[in-house]
Structures are given as structure tokens and as C-alpha cells.
Write a structure and sequence with these properties.
Elements (H helix, E strand, L loop, with lengths): L16 H20 L3 E2 L5 E3 H8 L4 H6 L1 E4 L8 E4 L4 H10 L8 E10 L11 E10 L4 H17 L7 E6 L3 H17 L6 H9 L2 H4 L4 H7 L11 H17 L4 E2 L11 E8 L8 E7 L3 H4 L7 E7 H11 L11 E5 L3 E2 L2 E2 H15 L5 E3 L6 H10 L4 E5 L1 H5 L2 E6 L5 E5 L3 H10 L2
Parallel strand pairs: 1-5, 7-8, 12-15, 12-16
Antiparallel strand pairs: 2-4, 3-4, 5-6, 6-11, 7-9, 9-10, 10-11, 13-14, 16-17, 17-18
Helix pairs in contact: 1-5, 2-4, 5-10, 13-16
The structure holds adenosine-5'-triphosphate and magnesium ion (MG).
Length: about 425
């Protein structure tokens, strides 16, 4: 009797060979661009102490309230509570403090890796997903905020999605300015309490700003007449924001100021931004970011300004696939090694093919060389070569071995040459490079 099949965890995706090629291309493009701005990679653990996220992300957020994968360390005597990271900024700041990277220094960092949130899985929303992100520490002016936006704009251009993304921008001011605003907002919401949904009623006191990005249309109508955060901004935040807008204007970056953009996480101040698309349905935010000057000290470090963003890799790739349905999956093989499997003069032709393949790789490390194993039928081997999209086949049969040669066949034209085995690698290189 067959055993019961074990399946993947809901909301956690396998990435199969049909798609991994696109992921690799996107990762390469993103990394090349990050590198071109002089940013360096940081990798931190997937698991961190639960307290890190409670403090960094904030208690009254969707993430900490209901989305974290939290468990107790099994062998720890004190049963420390651990959490699969729901985002990567907190770990990055923790590592920066722990290794003395932040205080009185400048760091321009990037990361890429999985994050975990217990959400209802749907298109563009998964329980394991991946983020590309940047965190810059030690620079307080709006010029770096503008650079992050330029960098992301360059990325959309390189990935062919620039026409399908737009930038929303806001400033949420200083902590103090926000405190004044919160009072005014709560007072207004209290007057309209009856029209609020349960979530908003609860948030109204614990995290009133989050009411602003409620998805509920009735709540949004009420908010039309609510006090405006912009009117409460402190003078420095206003100057910072004006500076950012000016830099974007002169760089020719279009944006929309969205006064209700507050972002889900607690740690932001001043600049917040999102790149959104209308091509993905409800999950339209591809990239979110902003400034978080208070985060480092909130996590026990010396006060250090910070600014960053995170891109949802799944949404980014969905968008690329949506706007460009003729993506080529270039998993093709360059050279397919075919052999008769015979033993000639004590030499097995497949072993010779295998060794020749090594020599081809020696001089063409970026090409894909695949050796056929198993069936010895030539016709089957050629149809495999076609299936893999091979450009060349290298054939070793009994006759070739007797003459110490191999046959190279150009599969598109049918041209073929018998070549000394010692010269096969060089000849393949000439043909492939001469294309
Ligand atoms: P949303 O409002 O869509 O829930 P968020 O504000 O929770 O997003 P952030 O914490 O800012 O998202 O994460 C940055 C980016 O990571 C998002 O803009 C999105 O592209 C992506 N992202 C967030 N949650 C998920 C998820 N569950 N699955 C896939 N991508 C996600
Ligand atoms: Mg969310």
C-alpha cells in the first residue's frame, strides 16, 4: 500500500526549474544595480529572539499581533521564545549594533532572503516569501532618501516594469509631531466611532495612525474630513520632505503625495514611500520603505539615522511575468555529449565523453555542457539534445575512438566535423563564441 503523501506547508512555495531561471535573472539584475551604487550585502539568521520583532516592528501591528511564527527553543534550558523573521530590517539593525557597524559610521547594506508571516495565502501573499532590501545607516539628509528611490526606479527600468509602477510618497514627521497629531486624530475618530469597524475601533487607541490605511471604504470616507498629518509636521521634517521632493523633481522622478500613506510598521519617521502597481490586483505594493531614525536606539544602540526599503520578490516576479508574457526560459544546454556506450580498445566511449566534457568546461566555464547517460541509441540521444535546445552535439562512437577523434555536429545546420579529441574543446569554443 502506498504511503500517504506529504505536502508542502500551505502558503509556502516550491520554486521549480521552470521558474528558477527567471528568479536567477532577477536576482542578478538586482545585485548588479545594488553593487553599482556601492552597497554591500549582509546576511543574518532566519530565526531571531521574539523580543527583537516585538520591539522593532511594534506590538500593535498586524505582524506582531497575528502573523509571526513563534516557538520555544527546544533544548534551551530557559525555553527562549524564537521567531521566524517576518521581515529583515530588525535582524539587520540587531547585527549592526552587535558588531559595532553603526555608531558614527556610514553603512549602505542590502539583503535578500526569505521572510515568514502567517497570513491568508492568495496571489502575491504567501506565508514564506522573499524580500530584497536596502538599509542605509548614518546619513540623515534627504539626498540618501532620493538615492534609494533613484535606485529602485533604475531597477524597474532594468526589469522592464517601469511603465507599470508608480511612486507614492509621504512624510510622517517626528515622533513628537506624530504624538500631537494622534491626539487630534483620536478626538476626530471618537466623534465618528459608530462608523468604524472593529479593527479600527481597537487600533484607534493602540495605534491610531493605522486607521489611516484601513482598506474599509466607509472608514476612508470618514477620513476625508479628518485632521491632516501634514498640518502637524515639525519644521525639520517639512524641510526634509521639501528637499526630497526637489531632488526627485530635478531627477525627473514622478511621484504622488499620498497623505494617508503611513506603512504597516511602527518604526518609520519622516519619509515613507511605496511603489505600487495596478497590474497585480489587491496585492499592489511591490516595494515599501522609508526612514527610521529612532530604530537603532530603540533596539539598544546609539542613536543613528537609518533609511531603507524592502521589495517583495514574489510580487516583483509576478509583475514581470504579467507585463511580459514572452519571457524566454533560457535553460538551454550548449553542448550535449553523445556516446555509443561501446567498449573499444578497453576504453568506454561514455567515459571518454564524460572526460571530454570536463575539458570543454575547463575552457568555457560559463557554458552548459551535459553528458548523456543510460540508453545507447543514437536517435534517442539526438532527440534529447534537441529537447534540451543544444547547439552542438559531440559524438563518440567506436570508429571515432579508433582514430582518437570525436564528431562535432552543429545541430541547427547539420554541419559536422571529425576532430582530434585533444582539439574538441577548442573547436567547440570557436563555434560557440563565433556565433
Ligand atoms: P501588505 O500591506 O501587502 O500586507 P506590508 O505593509 O505588510 O504589505 P511590508 O512589511 O512593508 O509589507 O513588506 C515589504 C514588501 O514585502 C511588501 O510591499 C510586499 O511586496 C512584500 N510582502 C509583504 N508581505 C508579503 C507576503 N505575505 N507575501 C508576499 N509578499 C509580501
Ligand atoms: Mg502585511
Amino acid at each position: 500500500m502506498a504511503e500517504k503523501k506529504i505536502q508542502a506547508i500551505r502558503g509556502m512555495n516550491d520554486l521549480l526549474p521552470t521558474e528558477s531561471y527567471l528568479w536567477q535573472q532577477v536576482e542578478k539584475t538586482v545585485k548588479t544595480i545594488l553593487n553599482s551604487y556601492g552597497y554591500n550585502e549582509i546576511r543574518t539568521p532566519i530565526v531571531e529572539a521574539t523580543g527583537l520583532f516585538q520591539r522593532a516592528v511594534g506590538e500593535v501591528t498586524d505582524i506582531v499581533e497575528k502573523e509571526m511564527y513563534t516557538f520555544n527553543a527546544r533544548n534551551d534550558k530557559d525555553k527562549e521564545s524564537l521567531t521566524l523573521r517576518p521581515e529583515l530590517t530588525a535582524g539587520c539593525v540587531r547585527a549592526g549594533i552587535e558588531h559595532g557597524l553603526l555608531y558614527n559610521q556610514e553603512q549602505r547594506l542590502w539583503y535578500f532572503g526569505p521572510a515568514f508571516r502567517y497570513e491568508k495565502p492568495q496571489k502575491g501573499r504567501y506565508r514564506q516569501f522573499h524580500q530584497f532590501g536596502v538599509e542605509v545607516f548614518g546619513i540623515e539628509g534627504p539626498d540618501i532618501d532620493a538615492e534609494l528611490i533613484l535606485l529602485t526606479a533604475r531597477l524597474w527600468q532594468a526589469l522592464g516594469i517601469a511603465e507599470h509602477t508608480s511612486l507614492e510618497l509621504n512624510s510622517i514627521g517626528s515622533l513628537e509631531a506624530r504624538a500631537d497629531y494622534k491626539k487630534a486624530l483620536v478626538a476626530y475618530l471618537e466623534e465618528h466611532k459608530d462608523a468604524l469597524d472593529e479593527d479600527c475601533k481597537r487600533r484607534m487607541y493602540s495605534n491610531p495612525l493605522r486607521v489611516l490605511d484601513s482598506k474599509n471604504a466607509d472608514v476612508q470616507t470618514i477620513l476625508n474630513n479628518a485632521p491632516k498629518l501634514f498640518d502637524y509636521l515639525d519644521a525639520e521634517s517639512k524641510t526634509h520632505f521639501a528637499g526630497l521632493c526637489q531632488l526627485l523633481d530635478s531627477a525627473g522622478i514622478k511621484y504622488k503625495i499620498n497623505q494617508r500613506l503611513v506603512r504597516g510598521l511602527d518604526y518609520y519617521n519622516r519619509t515613507v514611500f511605496e511603489w505600487v502597481t495596478s497590474s497585480l490586483g489587491a496585492q499592489g505594493t511591490v516595494c515599501g520603505g522609508g526612514r527610521y531614525d529612532g530604530l537603532v536606539s530603540q533596539l539598544g544602540g546609539q542613536a543613528t539615522p537609518g533609511v531603507g526599503f524592502a521589495i517583495g520578490a514574489e510580487r516583483l516576479i509576478l509583475l514581470i511575468q504579467t507585463v511580459n508574457n514572452q519571457l524566454e526560459n533560457d535553460n538551454n544546454i550548449d553542448v550535449y555529449m553523445i556516446s555509443s556506450g561501446e567498449l573499444v580498445n578497453g576504453q568506454n566511449t561514455t567515459a571518454i565523453a564524460q572526460q571530454l566534457a570536463e575539458r570543454i568546461r575547463d575552457i568555457m566555464p560559463n557554458k552548459r555542457i551535459m553528458t548523456h547517460y543510460g540508453s545507447t541509441n543514437f536517435k534517442k540521444q539526438f532527440s534529447k539534445a534537441d529537447k534540451y535546445g543544444a547547439k552542438l552535439a559531440v559524438i563518440i562512437g567506436g570508429n571515432e575512438v579508433l582514430e582518437n577523434k570525436a564528431m562535432i555536429k552543429e545541430l541547427q545546420t547539420g554541419n559536422q566535423y571529425a576532430i582530434e579529441q585533444d582539439l574538441v574543446a577548442q573547436k567547440c569554443l570557436e563555434i560557440l563564441e563565433g556565433e
